[in-house]
Amino acid sequence: MAVVGEPRIEPTINKASVRGQKTLWASCSYQKNISLNYKLLFLPPHLVRYVLVHELCHTVHLNHSAQFWELVLEKEPGYAVLDRELRKCSQYVPGWLEPSVLGNHDS
Ligand SMILES: [Zn+2]
User: Fold this and answer.
1) What's the whole-number average pLDDT of the chain?
2) Among 52, 53, 8, 63, which residue's Cα sits nearest to residue 30?
């Protein structure tokens, strides 16, 4: 149930796909195609949730502007901690998969 006056994301995505990116957890293109890295399967659920919120916010602001981060903050108040955690979580990806260089959710 939406609270009256509550700003909401109306995520309109064109396409979602799963890929095996080397350096990204996920990305969102200008055409609102969201690509998720299958290595997200190894991450704790709260971080996967943050990646999804982050990318859905990119369907509204396709950049890392102040407005973008305001929207992320609104949807995920603890995002700053999660963002830091995400930068260190390549440890969750098993070494047998590939030497991991993941450090960013996107770029
Ligand atoms: Zn981003």
Assistant:
1) 87
2) 63
